[in-house]
Amino acid sequence: MDIQKAIIAFDALSQETRLRVFRLLVEHGPEGMPAGTVSEKLGVPHNTLSFHLSHMSNAELVLSRREGRSIIYSANFDFFTGLIRYMVEDCCRADFASIRKDKKSGASIIELMNCCPPKKEKKS
Amino acid sequence: MDIQKAIIAFDALSQETRLRVFRLLVEHGPEGMPAGTVSEKLGVPHNTLSFHLSHMSNAELVLSRREGRSIIYSANFDFFTGLIRYMVEDCCRADFASIRKDKKSGASIIELMNCCPPKKEKKS
DNA sequence: TCCATATGTCTACATATATAGAAATATTTG
DNA sequence: CAAATATTTCTATATATGTAGACATATGGA
Predict the structure, then answer these.
(1) The pLDDT of residue B115
(2) For residues B64 and B84, what is the distance between their CA atoms, to the nearest angstrom?
(3) Is the Cβ atom of B48 within 7 Å of strand D at any atom?
(4) What percentage of chain B exceeds 70 in pLDDT?
(5) Which residues pair with A26 in a beta bridge?
(6) Most A-contacting residue of B76, B78, B110 (CB-CB within 10 A), to test interface
(7) Do A61 and A9 touch, CB atoms closer than 8 A?
(8) Domains in chain A, start-ordered, CATH in brackets?
(9) Which of B22, B106, B113 sits opposite A114 (nearest CB)?
(10) Chain-wide mean pLDDT for chain B?
(11) Strand D reaches within 7 A of the A9 CB
(12) Cα separation of A58 and A53, whole Å?
């Protein structure tokens, strides 16, 4: 993940139709769903949706595969978790967030501090 | 954090100048730095920068305060960590990510799985 | 091969965004 | 109160984006 990829990813997520598509696809996991079903579920015309899906595909947020006449789209979980890692690593300071790998599972463990402790007092 | 705030935040992060501003401000922590210094450091004209800063301010990504003639901008760490939490909670499924609070520190602990195990084999 | 289905591409247009010059506003200093 | 400094607002303009109708392409089945 570099700054250009991140910008393109944020751009893909910064539009209501696309963010709704992404969340719908996330719900359906790696199996995903056909473009037409997304179009129906969200009430977006197929050509408009196609525009957004290729936008998201270009950003690597979604993956696609053909199955017969349908093209199945699914959320790209690896890329998305990579984006989250980027936000933590490159956009957060060490004193607010830390990230480490769990050797056994390979999972990333992220710790986000509450940098401003629970709204009791404000310093100056 | 709701979907509308998230869209506005992603939009604020989806532009090179703004993402560079944000990263610069993050480096400088809660103290932040004057608008003019950001303008100089990034080589962006002051009025153009002002446009982007108010964009980011509107998105709640940055905070500002006046100090004498200067207006000091700083990254809004609370909001940003909230955005990361949103991405994990609302955009990731439980089988790819989990998030919990550490009772003592109040920190959020996020666990991101490698959903596709380290590129050995591909299932169909 | 012809037709129905599923999706993508082309096109046009309305709207939104980024940019920067010029002018305006707020603050400190003399 | 005038001048200098710091930043924002106004304005114009060029470019980018989102939308959807019309058309094109790809697949599977009769």
Answers:
(1) 59
(2) 22
(3) no
(4) 91
(5) none
(6) B110
(7) yes
(8) 3-78 (1.10.10.10)
(9) B106
(10) 88
(11) no
(12) 8
